Amino acid sequence: MSLLPTVPMVNLGNLYKSGCGLTWATNTTITVAKGQWRDSTNINDIVLSSTITINGAVNGANGLDTGSLANNTFYYVFLIGDSTKNLPTAGLLSLSSTAPALPGGVNVPGGYDMFRRIGAVLTDGSAHILSFTQIGTEMWYEAPISVLAATANASFTAQNIGAAVPPIAINVRFLATLVANAASNFVALRPTGSANTTGYAKMSAVAAGGTSQIGVLVCPCNATPSIDWKTDAASTAALSILAYVDNI
To answer: Is residue 231 domain-shared with residue 142, that is, in the same domain?
Structure first.
């Protein structure tokens, strides 16, 4: 009689994530691709076997946890599960990034009892979910969102970017427009609170005479979220948000 070799059972653990990419669908809906993520307590697995649609116009599983979609507001996207396996894996939107209001189920004791945040979406002034493209942990907006009009400032100045970046972001991709009067002009960025005197990201002018130069600058932000920016006194800079890296 032959014996099969012992094969150890391996659990991925360590808050792993696989799949479950987000896609914009309509003004109120997004889809979540199939995948599997460790839950927020790093104890259970939440498995999504097929694509689902989350509708922010309804409440409950595959909807918004409570209330209605508001204008110019970030909503955090969760994968939710039931450890008793009585309820199917679902998605959920919530104003909270750490404690969504989990829905129950008819005649199901306890209902959903585990979750993991898998992203965030932003609404516009009409409470419509802004179109986006998610690439790994990066969230790219369909159109850049302005956070600073053309201004000059010779000293690092804090700029709140919360209108386009959630407080869970790590790095931010800025579309910078520098209007220079000399080839030595520049715009520099750093996380608010940093002691760096030259900036984490810097774009220098390539020509003089009021030439407009456009480039992409990548800079971390603090949890406000906020960045510091400065130019030299002879130039102005405008900043818009292209994308941010989510801490998921």
So the answer is: yes
